[in-house]
Structures are given as structure tokens and as C-alpha cells.
Fold each of these.
Amino acid sequence: MEELLNIKNLVVRFYTYEGVVKAIEGVNLFLRKGETLGLVGETGCGKSVTSLSILALVPPPGRIEDGEIFFKRKDGKRVNLLELNEEDLMHIRGNEISMVFQEPGAALNPLYTVGEQIAEAIILHRREELCRRILEEIDEEMRKADTSPIKMLFLRFEKWAYTKMLKNTRTLSLRIVSKIPLLNLYLRRLKKHAKNEAVKMLKDMRIADPERIANMYPHELSGGMKQRAVIAMALACNPVLLIADEPTTNLDVTVQAQILNLIRELKEKFDTTILYITHDLGVIAEMCDRVAVMYAGVICEIADVNRIFEKPLHPYTKALLECIPRPGKKFKSIKGEVPNLINPPPGCRFHPRCPRAMEICSKVEPKMVEVEKNHFVACHLYRGEPS
Amino acid sequence: MRALLEVENLRKYYPIFGGLFKKKVADVKAVDGINLTIFKGECFGLVGESGCGKTTFGKTVIRLLKPTDGHIYFDVPPDIREKMRELELDGSPTALRELERLRKEYDLATYKGKKLRKLRRKMQIVYQDPTTSLNPRMLVKDIVGEPLKVHKLARGGEVIEKVVKMLQRVGLSEKHLYRYPHEFSGGQRQRIAIARALITNPDFIVLDEPTSAVDVSVRSQLLDLFISLQKEYGLTYLFISHDLSVIECISNRVGVMYLGKIVELAPTKELFDEPAHPYTKALISAIPVPDPNVKRKKILLSGDVPSPINPPKGCRFYPRCWKARDICRVEEPKLVRTKGNHFVACHFPED
């Protein structure tokens, strides 16, 4: 299958007063087109930082120290996201790669209605499409015989404005015109069209009565509704890659089931590739095709979802699976705590908690090897083909 | 088995004020008529979605909130409870007067001041988020030792001694005494909160979603701790959670709450194997199973939980229920025994 995203040897560090936090140390990961890859791990293991680096959004004092992230754009060009300038990145963010965050309440602006916020994303990224449609509409209105001369004049002005906008939004003339009262009324048409698109998006999210919801403010909506609105915003521009960062963690099980179902349906409909970040292995089993397990800034195992659950190889993956409470089975807990990433343990980062630690584990960092086809493990217990 | 806590017809309404003179305009019916018995030494699990009143119930039961209506009997001698039941059945004016007198003496809902404080020692709570439930300006030794001072259970050097012992029991150590809560990880903070709850040697502990703010691996560590503490101190738990898999592995009996009411009550295994109420069925089917080969048929509920200000008339679940018939709209189903210890509040539990 075609490769969509390839992260190579990514290193991210945070420069804090306490020391350098080695959040991500050499992560290698690739995503195929059309698949859902699950990224599992505990809090602070670097899942979210990985996803933020894909969008080049790592917040200071964090810095991407090393690595390459290759992404195949919509037009087929393969680019390194970390080398692009801000302007190109703006085209990619939201348009080709978009993200759904954990806390829908924090991802929405409380001062604007949900419809306005989705419309904003649409105006920003689908301007050309909207302008074309508006120009057609204006032409049709001009063709009508009974338009008054004043209206005709305004229509002509609108046509001029939208033709300009089609090429570039930030030309000087448009910027001036949009500040002049009465003349800037031409923007109403753009807003109306974007709003219609937003309502259509909300309808796709299985929201009953989308017109009413579009006019509501985030605080008037329940958690599940808010998350739907955020997903609508993320999918508004038909992205190739959707990064879902724990989208259902704060929701109730019944709402979670609704949202998961929705994401699955939308994936089919829009043909998006999904990077699904979560700590819930149950959700992983339901949603993903492949799974990558992360621990303390490194990826320790990547395999197909069935393999991970049937025959996990890395001791951490095994331990993680064993500590889920399941009926009829006694759960075991992992001893100790996640290491401090300022001074991570030498060698394999899991060795202080590992039940099968050997002498070599505390000295040499294990390399990722392919034990079986498509099953990669970074552990000294296994010797396969180096990847 | 002896009942430790008996709750009769418990209600807790939060008033909403509005209008020009801030008159009371409505009530949020957080807990609306709950009857429940928790036996000594068991772990009772309470599940439900957010906003269904689980936490309010937990807080009301240990009288951190004053109930609007209803009775709470905590650790009342069985013969007195028996007598009260008889008096209630009798129903004559003298009997009722006697009942009133007994209630004043034993009903926790009427307790005030000193009498209440004395009982507080016996019932404790562990909150969901340890970051907010621990005072950031207090040292661990003060946080854990404060209940001892408040209840005058220890003095001077004895306090530290007891605190250290308790910290060791929950998996911390002496070296943590002079630290502030922010220096700990989430799991450790929750351990501090547990130590604080246990130090007065209580009989009954309300665990209000104690594992929902921590990671999977920490969650299993905490659950282990809860189980071993229960055995060691003979504790009784009210375990509130929205996570059914946790409830399934820790509790003996489970109550399912929906909009301020208990809709189903059964021993854990029975509830998960043969759920009778449609809401319980939907809830159980919605848990993601950590096994990609298991493809469970999911029951997707439509819509959201209705507002507890104006709960639907009749059965509260009918607007989202796929089995709803005419009677569900009109008549509210009572919590009735279907078999053994299985109670359901549904008009059509069989089909």
C-alpha cells in the first residue's frame, strides 16, 4: 500500500529549568494511505508530542532536534514537513492534515457560535471553491432583468471583489474595501455560503437539527455535541490525514460509542487516514488496523492489531495488556513508575520495570527489529531482521 | 449479612433561582428517590453517565450535603431497625410518634453539629481528582495527619508515627513526609488521599471515581491497593465510577443510575451476564472490548441524557429506549425484584 506519512528518527526535547526533557528519542513510524494507526502509551510517553511534531506545532520550550517527517501531499508531491516554511505549513494544517483534540471544550472558542467557527475554517481553506460558486450566483442574479440599477452596481462591485479574492485574499484593494462600511457588505455573501457548508458538515456528523446547533455557543452544547462540532471542523476541508488525540477520553461510554461509530463512518466516506492516539486499549481494538506502542519517548512495538492482542512480544505491551481489568481474569499491575524523562534510564528505557530484564538491557539501547512480517519490536529478547 | 448503610427514599434537589426577586424557579433533581442497602464488608459499585447524580448521592450519603428528603441509617443496630419497620407498618398515631423519636436519634439525615462530627470519623471519601482535593500549601504529613487532630485521635509524636505507618501501608514512605502534593505523580497523590481517608480508621469509604484521572497501569495498582486494604481493615466501599470494567472487577453488587434514580440493582456477575434494563444493556454493549476478534453488537443510544430539571414523565429512559411503549410514557416503573437479588425498574424487563 501507498505510504502517506513517514517519520524518521524524530527527536524532540524540551528545555526547562530543571533540565532537558528528552520527550521523544528517535521515533520511526510510517502510515499507509487509508489505514488507521493507533498510538498507545501512558501519560507523558510522548504520544501527543509526536502528533504535534507532525504539524510542526511543538510548543516552546520544546524543540525538534533531529529527524524528518515525509508527507505525501494532495498533489502527489512528497515533502519534509520539518523543512517547510510557515506559509506552506499553513496550507497543510487543516487542509491536508487536521487534528481533533482531547478536550472539545478547550478546542472551541466560547465567544463564537459553532457554525461561525466551522465556517471560519471553510473560508480559510476552501476559498477558491466558495468564490467560484459565489461568482456563478452573482452572474445569475445579474442576468435577471428586473434588478434595479443600484443593485446592479453593487453586483458588479461584488463580482470584481470576488474575482480578486479568487486569486488572492490579501491584496491591498480588498483589504481596504473590507474596512469601508456599506461596501464591505459584499462579505455577507461569503459568510452565508460558508455557513451553509458548515451546516452541511454538521449534518454529516449525524446532528439532528443542524441549523439550530450551528447558531449555538459551545457552552450550550453537551460534551458529545462539542466533540462532533470539532470533528466537523477538522473534516471541513477533507484532509488526507486526521490526527485524533484522545478524542473520546472525557466522554461517557455511550457517547464514546456514538463518536467512535461516527469516526468509522466518516473515514469510509471521506477516505481519510487516521492516526488515533489513545491510552484505552479497548478503543484501539475497535478502531485500528495497526498499533504502535510507546513508552517513555520511544516506540517499543509496532504490529497489526490482531498480532498485538494475540501475541504481544515486548514485555511492556504484555504488561499493559495484563493490567486491563477483564471479567474472569485477574489483572496484574506493572510495578514502579514511568521514568523521569530528564534522566531516562540508560539502555532500554523499560528495563527498571521489566520482569525479563537482562544484563545487556541496562547498557545497550535495543534497536527496532522486524521479528515477523510487519511486526517490529525493540527488545533484546528478540533478534530479527534489523529494520 | 448485616446492613451497614440503609438509604430510604433519598432526595437531593438543587434549587435554581431566577427572575427579578431571585425566587426559586425550579429544582435540579440530582438524586430523586433512592432506596438502597449496603452491607457490611461489601463493595457496592454505582455506575452511570456523567450528570446522573452518582457523586451527589455519594456525598449526601455521608452527609457532606444535606438531603432534601429521605432517611439515612448508618450502622444502626439491627433490632432497632426491625422495631422501626414494625412501627411503620403499624401506622397508628402513637407508633408514628415513637418512630419519629427513633428517627431523630438514629437518622443520619437529621444529624447536626457534634453528633454529626463524631460520625464523620467513621465515613470518609476519596475524590476523583487528587490535584484539587489536596491542599497545595500543606505538607503531606499535615494533610494526612489533620483528620487525627480534628477528631482528637492522636497527639504530639503519636501523630507522625501514625501518619508514617499509614503512608507505608498505601505504598509511600517516610521520605515523602515533608513534601508538597505537586511533587508527586497522579498515582502517588491519589495514594495520599487514600491515606488521609484511612487514617481515622473508618468503616465506610466513598470512592468517587478514584481511578478515572490516572493511567491504565496506575489504575491497576490502585485497584490492587483498594482490594488489599478492604481485606485488611474490613472496609465497606461505595465505589462510584463510569468505567464498567473497573466496577466489574472490584464490586460485589452493582447499581446502575440514570437521571437520579437507580434503574437496576444486582450482584455483579448477574448484572453483566444478564442485564435486564435496556439502559444497562446499552451501557454494557458500549464498553470497548480490548480484543479485536470480539465483535459485539452495539446498541447505540440516540441523543443525550435529558435535563434533570425537567425529567421525562413516566419512565425516565423512554425517550432513548428502543422498547418504549405507551405505558412507559405514563407510568413510572418501580424497582422490583425479578429473581434472587436482581432488581429492575422497567415495565418490560423480560423481552
Amino acid sequence: MNSGDAFGLLFALFVIAAPFALGIIGKARENRHLEDIARRSATHRDFPVVDIPLLPAGMQARGSEIVLGQVVIASDYLKNFFAQYRAIFGGEVKSFSRMVERGKEEARLRMIEEARSKGAAAVINVRFETSQIGASQGQRGQAMSEVLCYGTAIYV
Amino acid sequence: MIVVNTESVPGYRVTQLKGLVQGNTIRAKHIGRDIGASLKNLVGGELTGYTELLTESRRQAMERMIQQAQQLGANAIVNVRFTTSSVAAGAAELYSYGTAVVVEPVA
């Protein structure tokens, strides 16, 4: 085997292994993010957040203000790759569902954190909005979504 | 200026309706952020550069909406809504709108 062949073999291995390496890194980061979300959610469990435009019973509002939480989140290379094949057979794209769920949770937590840091007692009339932003021609297959969560913080 | 996304301001009464106010901005991401984001796109997760860009832009759209309301002599904007759309590759439109009103505290 000459040096050219060895190089070619290494290159082929790299091309095959790289997406998996990226997938493993992506998975690890996702798990860390999900743990972080669970931990932060637990600290805000008693804070009232509702999507109706009514105050919790017995609460008298002295002030109110809009609060926002937003995040742009992307899926990793390996998931994008496999999702293309999922599109042939249809069905739930689990990896993307998880990505969007992470985005929703993160946006919601950011909104709650903003409200609580300003001393709010509740957040009412919460709305979620998801949009796809800036998909350039080259990144056709890249799943990237923007999540916005907003509501009215109530001060008592 | 009181800005809320509920139909009325809790604890206040609407005395005058001033009409629809809106603010928008179209932002393109700059190339440094684009490169950073495409690298980040490989492993997935939050694209911090884009999050910051959109947060900044959305604040600007809101400020424009608030300015309009001030010109109309309103002191609050109720029922605020946001929309985001992609107008071209690499450019996003951030739009916010609401109803400008005059409110006074319920005695």
C-alpha cells in the first residue's frame, strides 16, 4: 500500500465518521440542555403562568408589562441527515420534535426568568410563536427554528 | 408607556382608543455571525448569535411601535402581537403591532 492509498482510506474513514462524531457531540449537548431545563423548570414550579388573560384568584395588579423569551435553535448534522430519509416514509420526526421542544422550554424559561427578575408575581396571556428564519440556499436541509414566548407580567 | 399583550391593562380602565400602531424591522445577519452559526449548526443547539440578533431587532421593532403610540398621545399599548417572517435568504422581518389607548387607574 503506498502513501496515496493510505491517505485515501483515512479520508474515506473521516467522511464516514465525522457525521457520527457530530451526532454524538450533539446528543451530549442535547442531554445537558434537557437536564438544565428540568432543573430550572423545577425552581419555577410554583410561579403562576397561564395563557388566559385573567389574574390568578385574589391577585390585585399594581402594574403590568410585556415580557419576552426567545431562542434560535438548530439540529445537528447527523439528525438532519437521517431526517431526510424519514421524509420518505412519513411519521413523527422524533429528533426534530425534541429540538423544537427544547426551544419552546428554553423560551418559556427565559420569559419566566425575565419576569421574576423584575419582581413579577405572575405571567398571564402567554403566547408561543415558532418561525423558520434565514435558510440560505446552501443550508437547505438544516433545521433551524426560532421560538418566541411572550406574555404580560403582573406586579402586585 | 405600558405595553401588554392582554386586551386591557390589569388595574386600569381604557378611556380613549387611539388606533393601531406598528413597528417593523428587517435585519440581515452579518457574515461573521453567519460563519459562526453554520459551524454551530453542525453540532446543533442554541445559535447564540442569532438569538441576540433577533432579540435586538425585536426590541427595535417594539421601540418603533412605542414611538408611534407616543405621537398619537397614547399612554399604553394593549393586545400586542409579534410576527416573524423570512423575506429573503439571510434576512428576517420582525413585526410588532398593537392598539394604542389612553388608560387611567381604576380608583
